[in-house]
Task: structure prediction
Amino acid sequence: MTAVGELVAHGRSADVHSLTTATVVKVFHDDWPDEAIGREVEDATAAFDLGLTPIRCRGRADADGRRAVVFDRIEGVALTTVAEKNPLRMGRVARALAQEHARIHRVASDRFPDVRDVAADLVGTAPFAGLAARERAELLDHLASLPGGESVLHLDFHPMNVFRHGGGIATIDWQSTACGDPAADVAMTRLLFTEAELFPGATRAQLLVYGAARGAMGRMYLKEYLDVTGMTTARLDRWATAARVLRLGMLDIPSERERLLRGIRSVIAR
Result:
């Protein structure tokens, strides 16, 4: 059994605690599915093997009787923290975020599920129970019409999951990894900057600062990504509905539910 140390971070699925000078332990909340924990171990291991992150997953553990996973410790701070400490660095942070995302997308792999299949499977879950049979059928048709691809997609890529580390950058939380068209991943990040609830456990100061600044950072991130990769806005917009499906189906956050469903319905109605 692993004895955990001080709390390092709090998230929707787990809390991260200090373990040793070189490792941390991610302790999952009791209601988090065991299947999802196993998937995170597999995906985080694959991400390290593919050179997508320098943070190694050390495997599952028992943390004071709770389910946990051990990871290498990050020697640095999240890009969100960099921007909070000095708002003048927001542009630099946004560019670093975009460049890291583009680097990830240059890696191709078949070790992860197709993002279109992930989204289609979610349509049959509880958050979509309010859709009529016709609406679900039209939504599935829309998802099937989207283009394929081979790039690795993070699907939860935002500045709280990207850190300064060892003189470079480290991206964490590979628990929803897929493969496909990079525009799907960028659409998810755009949604996180515009429609998603702010991160859990945030202080009042963080909510004020990040709430006011995230729109500007999102626009700077998107401009840099499009400039670096040549992706068009039209290609990105094709994935807006799929991004809402992924966000709603993966997390089903009550404060987001109706807004995301309205966005989904507005497209399939056309």
Notes: The mean pLDDT is 92. Residues 94 and 221 are 5 Å apart (CA to CA). The longest strand covers residues 57-63.
